[in-house]
Automatic annotation (TrEMBL):
Keyword Acetylation carried by entry: no
Positions of the Alcohol dehydrogenase-like C-terminal domain: 178-305
Gene3D superfamilies attached to this UniProt entry: Medium-chain alcohol dehydrogenases, catalytic domain, NAD(P)-binding Rossmann-like Domain
Cofactor: Zn(2+)
Family of this protein: Belongs to the zinc-containing alcohol dehydrogenase family.
Organism, scientific name: Clostridium scindens (strain JCM 10418 / VPI 12708)
Annotated protein name in UniProt: Alcohol dehydrogenase catalytic domain-containing protein
One example GO MF annotation: oxidoreductase activity
Domain Alcohol dehydrogenase-like N-terminal residue range list: 27-137
Length: 344
């Protein structure tokens, strides 16, 4: 019997490896040899014990090569490079059927691997449904393609921000999500203002294409944005930092008819004050964004395949699946962007 290795988070800061039988795909199944899987915040929270989901086969930002396909698969063939959509949706609830599968009431209930629940990308192989497999360019760097899911999340966010040509757009926080927002906002034709405390991250913002850099620790970011926009405020503001005080700043620096997008979840979830009259009179829109739709995921694969979006600066290191504990310890450092785990 041929087997493959699956990494499983068994308890706080404890990783085990399971040997799973390597089977042949049936009907609409696709067997994928994993090339790269990035470590996301979700997996970091399970690793640190913030989220108790043990045992958990983590890894939902994965890319690889098709090894075999079931007899009813038509979209991909052995040898194709692919991205895999692993944060699934049920397809049956009201939101899935209404075209908003990112709001699925049963999402994230993944059982990709037989040994434990979870998306299962931190492994040597995955068996997945053909519906969740997206072909990418033959010359694509699969470590870059592993960033498809976070990019897709940002695509969804940018669409919610409804950026128009020539808009003034503010991105608060230049972690990987803020950096991706900058590139996408530039593609929409915006002037991008990056707000960040860390000078190194401001340099990353510049590399991503930001037009103006604001060190929020040295100046009042709200007043600075208003000065830059002749007192109007920004047309769209994306808050990518999980701090309620910055959500408040995002609302304040948004101008008339502007869109304020809360990209991140907030921890702790502290309420902020919002003037109903300001929202009423300015027609400001305050919204959130969560998870990508299938359309967003497809757009992300095309952006990466065509090298329209460059994520090379956002991969801090590539590490072995056999050295996963060290990879997690590096991933949780505050100056790390993405750590990509590779089985070989």
């Amino acid at each position: 019997m041929e087997t493959f290795k699956v990494a499983v988070l068994e308890e706080e800061r404890k990783i085990g490896y399971h040997e799973v039988e390597k089977k042949q795909p049936k009907d609409k199944q696709v067997l994928i040899k994993v090339d790269s899987c990035a470590i996301c915040t979700l997996e970091q929270r399970v690793y640190l014990g913030v989220m108790n989901r043990y045992p958990f086969a983590g890894g939902h930002e994965a890319a690889g090569v098709v090894e075999a396909v079931g007899k009813k698969v038509a979209g991909v063939k052995p040898g194709d490079k692919v991205a895999v959509r692993l944060l699934n949706s049920c397809g049956e609830c009201y939101y899935c059927r209404n075209g908003h599968e990112n709001q699925c009431v049963k999402s994230f209930i993944a059982e990709t691997q037989e040994c434990a629940m979870g998306p299962g990308g931190l492994s040597e192989y995955m068996m997945v449904s053909a519906d969740d497999v997206y072909k990418v360019a033959d010359d694509a760097d699969l470590s870059h393609i592993s960033i498809t899911e976070p990019l897709a999340c940002c695509v969804h966010s940018i669409e919610n921000g409804k950026i128009e040509l020539g808009n003034d757009v503010v991105v608060i926080g230049i972690g990987i999500m803020g950096a991706l927002h900058i590139q996408l906002a530039k593609l929409k034709g915006a002037r991008v203002i990056a707000c960040e405390l860390d000078e190194k991250r401001l340099e990353v913002a510049k590399k991503m294409g930001a037009d103006i850099l604001i060190n929020s620790g040295k100046v009042d970011a709200v007043e600075e944005v208003k000065k830059l926009t002749d007192g109007r405020g920004a047309d769209a503001v994306f808050c990518t930092v999980p701090v309620a005080a910055l959500a408040d700043q995002a609302v304040q620096m948004t101008g008339k008819l502007g869109r304020t997008v809360f990209y991140t979840s907030f921890h702790p979830d502290k309420p902020i004050e919002i003037s109903p009259n300001k929202v009423h009179s300015s027609e400001q829109i305050i919204t959130g964004t969560v998870n990508p739709s299938k359309k967003d995921f497809l757009a992300a694969t095309r952006l990466l395949s065509a090298k329209i979006v460059d994520v090379s600066e956002l991969i801090s290191d590539r590490m072995s699946l056999d050295d996963l504990e060290a990879a997690f310890e590096k991933a949780i450092l505050p100056d790390t962007y993405r750590i990509v785990v590779q089985p070989e």
